[in-house]
Amino acid sequence: MQVFADRTETIEKPHEVSYGNREKMALHVDDEEEWRDIVERSLTSLGYKVVQAANFQDAEFSAKNQRFDLYVIDGTFPMKPEEAGDREAGLKLYKLLNDLHGDSSKYVLLSGDGYVEDACERNGIPFLYKSHFAKKFESFIKALDK
């Protein structure tokens, strides 16, 4: 796992996974360490190498410097380190990523906030409640991979 909290810290990498001639890569953005661990375990079990970010600034840095097949984005997280969570950060990041990469990547927003769900629904962004994560996440990602 790589965490770009300060863009230099590297923690143990997950096992290498083949995806044709390259690895399947996922960027997961969440300010809660517990959720980063949970999502990383699930994505790794689905064959993804996971890079993590805890705020918008670090996610943007990662996305501009590496290609990802999948973006798993929390709905609310800080824009910069040491800031409070921004209720629209996930939607802002989705827009930035979609502008950078368009339809060449897959996206899913996770949240416990009905506001985020409504915004995702209005914009056609795949959404999953965090409370449904354990039952639905892996099948949700497998469906996106098809």
Mean pLDDT over all positions: 81
- Helix fraction? 40-55%
In this structure, how is the largest beta sheet organized? 6 strands, parallel
Helix and strand content put the structural class at alpha/beta
List the helices and strands and how they pair.
Layout: E1 2-3, E2 24-29, H1 33-45, E3 48-53, H2 56-65, E4 70-74, E5 77-78, E6 85-86, H3 89-101, E7 106-111, H4 114-123, E8 127-129, H5 133-145
Helix pairs in contact: 2-3
In short:
The chain has 5 helices and 8 strands. With 146 residues, it is an alpha/beta fold.
What keywords describe this structure?
146 residues; disordered N terminus; 8 strands; alpha/beta; Rossmann fold
Describe the structure.
The structure is a single chain. With 146 residues, the chain is of the alpha/beta class. The chain has a single domain (2-145), classed as Response regulator (Rossmann fold, 3-Layer(aba) Sandwich), CATH 3.40.50.2300. The chain has helices spanning 33-45, 56-65, 89-101, 114-123, 133-145, and strands at residues 2-3, 24-29, 48-53, 70-74, 77-78, 85-86, 106-111, 127-129. It has a 6-stranded parallel beta sheet, with helices on both faces. The chain has a two-stranded antiparallel sheet with strand order 5-6. The radius of gyration is 14 Å and the shape is globular. The two termini are 25 Å apart.
